[in-house]
Amino acid sequence: MDMEILQDYLPEARELLEKAQEDTLRLEADPGNDEVLASVFRAFHTLKGGAGFLDADHLVDWTHHLEDLLDKLRSHSLPVSPIMIDTILKGLDVIDGMLRELAQGDNPGAGPADLGQVIQNLAAGRPPAAGNPPAAQGIEPGVDRTPILCTDMDATLLARQQSTGDGRTGVYVERLPEGATEHSTGKTDEITAEEFEATLDALYGNKAPGLMDSAEAACAASDEITEDEFEKVLDDLYGDQAPGIVPAPALRHDTPPSTVMGAISKGGGHAQALPGVKADPGSTSAVVATPPKTGAATAPEAAETTLRVDAVRLDAVMNQVGELVLLRNRLASAVSSLGEENEDMARIAREMDLTVNDIQNTVMRLRMQPCKRLFQQLPRVVRDVSRQLGKEVKLEIVGEDVEIDKTVVDALSGPMTHLVRNSLDHGIEGPEERAAAGKARTATLRVAAIHLGDKVRIEVSDDGKGIDRQFVTQKAIDKGVISAEQAARLSEQEALELIFRPGFSTKDQATDLSGRGVGMDVVKETARKLRGRLDLQTRLGQSTSIAMEFPLTLAVLPVLYLRLRRDVYAMPVSAIESLIDVSETRMHRLNGRTVYRIDGAQVTPVVDLGALLHHKPLALRSESIEGVLTDRGLFIVSEVLGNEDSVVKPIDFLADENWYQGATISGKGSVVLILDPSALTAAAIADMEGVA
Amino acid sequence: MKAAPVFESGDHRWWILHDQDEHRVIDSNVYVMESNGQSILLDPGGFEIFPQIFAAMVEVVQPSSLQAAFVSHQDPDIASSLPLWNACNGKIHWHIPKLWEGFIRHYGALDAHFVSIPDEGRELVIGGRKLEFIPAHYLHSSANFHVYDPEAKVFFSGDVGAALLPPGHSAWVDRRDPESSKAFDEHIQHAKFFHQRWMPSNEAKKDWISRVRQLDIDFLCPQHGAIYAGENVQRFLHWFDALPVGTALSAMHA
Amino acid sequence: MDIQRIMAIVEASYQTRHSIEGALRDIDRRALNAMVLVKRHGNALAGYGVVARAFREGAADLKEAASHMQKSIAPLIQAHMRILQHRSYADLFRRMRETMDGAGKICPTLGCTEETWAQTIAAEEAEALNILYILIQAVNRIQEGIAEQEYVVTNGRIEAALSEDTGAPLMRVSRDMGNAVGIVRDAIRSYRNQLEELLHESGTGF
């Protein structure tokens, strides 16, 4: 298998697959949409082409059948039916599996025979009966010197990629005389105009406007490529911007009489001015070389400036910036200890500080990805699950464009699916139940990403039946998650949050929906690992909303350094509400817990770090103390030292409590543990109750 | 001279002023107890070290809070600064063993406000907190008192527990390893001669130990040397119990 | 010099130091609070971040200046107590001489000793005056620091007004900062007045 081709093929194939799934779901609502039909067709076709190159014969077969089916739908020789949509979606799942196998370096095995048969039968216009599918043909789209044929009756239009004089890759198109085909398989399976168009798609993306028409034109019945045909090809490749319009001084190619070679960079390159190309109407061949116009109609500039970079390299840059940040901190610390007499150094340190901040921001943005990637799987999940459960659900997606760190996007895919499934399974009622409760039959499930300062909030909310605190508490007691005595002491919110405890599941039998090894505890743990926080809001009979808040970036962590007696710890700034002067008169004992009255009626649990980390409470009256107010509780420490933008280093030697988010290196060069406020608050509360 | 906290709980504090800069006179500790904005000085020290004692004290307690001073006995290292304190603050009440009043006036404070302590001792309330004057006669002075703060569990022991330490010494007998008696054993070498020679009566000693053993003491604070905390308090009482005193007599008769 | 004047200075030094210590801690905490607030809002409050940082640096400078002041207070008090102590010697010899004079006996050695003490005390008073100058200089530095902090606070108010739409309670933060600085300013101003009175009396004392 050609690994280089594979590396190019896989990401594109995944994008095509995702697009196809999205389109297929759209078809369900809008079965007659030709544009969407064509798009799905093209996706299968292109997938097939690439698979041929990789000698992934089973993938070729599979996509071929799907392509076949779509071809019929596209030409309206068959109507789109719900069973077809289901079948196509299932077929897409099979492709997904095959791509996974490819990614692992395996040549995919055959798809499930029964489903394959169903697809073929549907394509043949008959429900699940036997049919003899036509043999799949390996069709190679034009990549790397492999020619493809565009045949029309008796002429062949050959397109291939070929190196140009300046080292770039160009596309070479020529009409071959009859019989002069170089078809690698030597078979007479003709490539249609659509195939050629799909080939161009594979090469240039599939968004060029009017591509289909022109491709058909390009394969016109004539032996010759007419000026019109050629112009059309050019138009399609360039969009509306004909090469002649582009100012041309950049390239000074000698134009061969019958060919024009231009520059194209593989996988999308720079905008490159081309000389005006004047096709010779009488010539039998022409070569067109263009910069690719992926998505030319929508965002040509974006396309031209996009670069695919290996995530590993980005991670490497990120780590190096992390080291730079730490060094910056140490420099700042060293310079500040020099004193005032060193104005010059102080100024350099300040400028360095700003520059590193800029680099940090820029690199951070490199890693940002839109939440669309996170959300795009959800329509399918909602469709399948709601159908299975017989519920009517409308999915609302908000904030697809909101960007967040790639790590978050990657890690959250499982938990997001689980949250949505959970909502469908436990939150949303069936239509009759809803109607009986005076609600609309169709429930609304809302998934949203919201940008909040240096955080992104991701919410999954529904207008279902809410979570019953008593029910949850009783379940938790039954499952042995907590004791009845502990349960009695829980606040309302704490009782609800029992659903995040390991070992808790409100369904008595694990349905296949809540299976897959992802539970609410995993959602919580994932959020914790990503330094996020989880927030659960519910109104009985009305709604449930589970929100996760994540820092925009995981690369840099602003921390507050604090001192506990002689030890220094760090706490993420994101968790801190404010720093307060602790007043003894505001400390109260309430239900066996020590709480602090912030203002008016608002009280928060007191987390004595001395008691937790030193097993010796901080003596309010004889030791210096300061308070750090977090959204979880008031942390009592000896002194707050200052803040710093820091970099997290993972720690793996602490097997005991998960009280730390990691470690960092302070400006003074020492290793400092980063506290996890919510874990510590939980521990403090457990401690107090143990004593009570 | 340095000020260091001995005990602190809210508005109730004990301080030690120690490690004086003048070495031609015996090194002495001065203690201050503050409660509720009122304070008392314990064994205010000699005339020569008064300026540094005063400067160190006003770092930690508000000068106007000083209500009273306690003088355990008549020695100059304890009471000769009396006229200077009196000049600074004529309102200070001086709690003095009744037996020594006429002697102490010789330091030059004829107009100072003296409050006598009878032989059996008595109590005093400062800022709402009770202090007990514990009789310690013949240890070493013939009319001599120690001070106990039952709330802070601080025991001011005057010359008992005194050690002659080199300049720059710590305020505490090393307490980093409370399980081990090593630090105590080293320290007590510097206390041995002082107790054998300046303490005249084994009988007085036994009587004192039996009474003091009934008190709950966290900090035993001598006027010379370093503070005994925690385990070291019992170690000291045990050591002192076993130590024969009044050695000058036995040396003469040997 | 009147011992009561000295005692008033001793008292004022204690008071000033304590109120400044508390207020400086307060300023530092407020500066940190502002920085935390800024950090939590990402780039939206970058402008206020500069203010918060300057405020915190100012707080550190003030702390440093206050510790310089502190270092001069104890020597000043000690010097005056030394003078008090030596005056009592001088008084002793003066009284003895007066008693002898009254008895019609002249003792030149006694007069000589009295003279020696007077010289010693004069030298010590000069030393005390010198320390007082240094102390006033240290107070001056604190006052400069306060002026800078007040400038930062004013900038903070402007920035707060500019970033009002972010919803961060910057106006309140700025006001709190201003109040904390005000406490130090007032305490140090009244302390300076007392020191200058002492300086005035010391100057006319010679």
UniProtKB/TrEMBL annotation, chain A:
Entry EC no(s): 2.7.13.3
Cited SUPFAM superfamilies: ATPase domain of HSP90 chaperone/DNA topoisomerase II/histidine kinase, CheW-like, Histidine-containing phosphotransfer domain, HPT domain, Homodimeric domain of signal transducing histidine kinase
Coiled-coil blocks: 3-30
Limits of the Histidine kinase domain: 340-554
Signal peptide: none
GO MF terms held by the record: phosphorelay sensor kinase activity
InterPro entries named in the record: Bact_Chemotaxis_CheA, CheA-like_dim, CheA-like_homodim_sf, CheW-like_dom_sf, CheW-lke_dom, HATPase_C_sf, HATPase_dom, His_kinase_dom
Domain HPt: 1-102
Keywords assigned by UniProt, alphabetized: Coiled coil, Kinase, Phosphoprotein, Transferase, Two-component regulatory system
Residues that bear Phosphohistidine: H45
A single GO BP: chemotaxis
Enzyme's top EC category: transferase
GO CC annotations on file: cytoplasm
SMART domains: CheW, H-kinase_dim, HATPase_c, HPT
Catalytic activity as recorded in UniProt: ATP + protein L-histidine = ADP + protein N-phospho-L-histidine
Domain of life: Bacteria
Annotated PROSITE patterns: HIS_KIN (PS50109), HPT (PS50894)
Protein purpose: Involved in the transmission of sensory signals from the chemoreceptors to the flagellar motors. CheA is autophosphorylated; it can transfer its phosphate group to either CheB or CheY.
Record's protein name: Chemotaxis protein CheA
Organism: Acidithiobacillus sulfuriphilus
From TrEMBL, chain B:
Domain Metallo-beta-lactamase: from-to ranges: 27-224
SUPFAM superfamilies the UniProt entry points to: Metallo-hydrolase/oxidoreductase
Keywords for this protein: Hydrolase
Alphabetized GO MF terms: hydrolase activity
Sequence intervals crossing the membrane: none
Name of a matching Pfam family: ODP
InterPro entries: Metallo-B-lactamas (IPR001279), ODP_dom (IPR045761), RibonucZ/Hydroxyglut_hydro (IPR036866)
Protein name (database record): MBL fold metallo-hydrolase
From TrEMBL, chain C:
Top-level division of the source organism's lineage: Bacteria
The protein, known as: Chemotaxis protein
Upper classification of the organism: Bacteria, Pseudomonadati, Pseudomonadota, Acidithiobacillia, Acidithiobacillales
